[in-house]
Write a structure and sequence with these properties.
Layout lengths: L1 H18 L7 E3 L16 H15 L11 E3 L9 E5 L5 E5 L1 H4 L4 H15 L9 E4 L2 E4 L10 H6 L1 H10 L3 H7 L2
Parallel strand pairs: 1-3, 2-4
Antiparallel strand pairs: 3-4, 5-6
The structure holds zinc ion (ZN).
Zinc ion binds next to helix 4.
Length: 180
């Protein structure tokens, strides 16, 4: 009985991490006829978007890396579980929407962790990567594209490793920083 329960749990975990149920993730594909809400980024996010672009140039090694036409704004994330979402529209355009009440009480590293995660979906076209590794008995996220964003402490401590993974999809720098 117990083994069966564990097996079912493993199956559920697998299905969540591998196929990404559309109703339960922050990369939301919009239906035909729906159009993007914003044309430009709210100036509140200008700095953090510039940071993403600079990090993209630095870590990818591509000097012409650009965020492109992906506005970031406050709005309705359409799911109480998500503080931020990437909406993807049928015309191929995308946008990031952030819950304002969350933003107003979040720390700076956590804001960057969330915005960079959403831009990972909207600009880099990345999906979730829920791999975790054990370090000294505690579990650490092996990617900023984990469905649950990296917390401010971990992000601040391992920023270079996480950004290397975000822009190059290689984890060795992060794992080396973890000491594994
Ligand atoms: Zn996500």
């Amino acid at each position: 009985m117990k083994i069966r329960r564990i097996f079912i749990l493993a199956l559920i975990t697998l299905s969540i991490s591998s196929c990404g149920l559309p109703l339960h993730r922050d990369l939301v594909v919009k239906n035909k006829g729906e159009v993007r809400q914003f044309e430009a980024t709210n100036p509140i996010f200008a700095n953090i978007v510039t940071q993403f672009e600079q990090a993209g140039k630095q870590y990818s090694g591509n000097p012409s890396f650009s965020v492109g036409d992906v506005p970031v704004n406050f709005g309705d994330t359409e799911n109480p579980s998500f503080e931020g979402v990437c909406f993807s529209y049928p015309d191929g355009r995308t946008e990031v929407i952030i819950r304002e009440s969350w933003w107003n009480s979040a720390s700076q590293p956590l804001k960057e962790s969330l915005i960079f995660h959403e831009l990972g979906h909207c600009v880099l076209g990345r999906d979730h990567d829920n791999e975790t590794v054990e370090v000294n008995g505690s579990s650490r996220k092996a990617s900023m594209m984990n469905a649950v964003i990296v917390n401010s402490g971990q992000y601040s401590e391992f920023r270079a490793g996480y950004l290397t993974e975000l822009f190059t999809q290689t984890k060795q720098t992060l794992f080396t920083a973890f000491g594994i």
